[in-house]
């Protein structure tokens, strides 16, 4: 049985310098993303598109969503297959191409590095990325390839 989950966010443009969008350079791309009960996210456009480099941009947040979703799906899979993960980090990358006034993402690559506690877990830990990728809601929702290039290493129970 399919379940439906609804999400609500509020995005407010804060870049009116007093003349609105009277010209392309007359406003900033600054905005605030609000989600009830959570800290505000200060956003802007990518610096390339006249945005503030000190704020999050939508392109970064899309890649962030992919990396977070894979990580959370992966940690669930690790539990299911009996893998003890003690550290996880991902330096994800993505490529976007622009043409005219539009563009699109062409690829994202996740590079999760997972630390497990026993050498006998390495194979299962590596394999669990496949099912995690299939389970990731965000990866299933985009129309460009999301590749996963995992590394699994052996480490102790304490974090460095």
TrEMBL record:
Transmembrane segments: none annotated. Pfam families: OsmC (PF02566). InterPro entries: KH_dom-like_a/b, OsmC/Ohr_fam, OsmC/Ohrsf, OsmC_Ohr_Peroxiredoxin. This is Peroxiredoxin. It comes from Nocardioides luteus. The lineage of its organism: Bacteria, Bacillati, Actinomycetota, Actinomycetes, Propionibacteriales.
């Amino acid at each position: 049985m399919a379940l439906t989950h609804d999400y609500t966010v509020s995005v407010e443009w804060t870049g009116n310098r007093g003349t609105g969008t009277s010209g392309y350079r007359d406003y900033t791309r600054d905005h605030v993303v609000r989600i009830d009960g959570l800290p505000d996210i200060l956003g802007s456009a990518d610096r390339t598109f006249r945005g503030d480099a000190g704020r999050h941009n939508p392109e970064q947040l899309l890649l962030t969503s992919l990396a977070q979703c894979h990580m959370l799906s992966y940690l669930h899979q690790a539990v299911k297959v009996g893998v003890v993960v003690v550290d996880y980090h991902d330096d994800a990358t993505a490529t976007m191409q622009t043409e005219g006034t539009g563009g699109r993402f062409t690829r994202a690559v996740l590079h999760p590095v997972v630390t497990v506690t026993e050498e006998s877990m390495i194979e299962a830990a590596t394999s669990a990325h496949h099912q995690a990728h299939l389970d990731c809601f965000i990866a299933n929702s985009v129309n460009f390839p999301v590749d996963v290039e995992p590394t699994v290493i052996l480490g102790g129970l304490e974090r460095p």
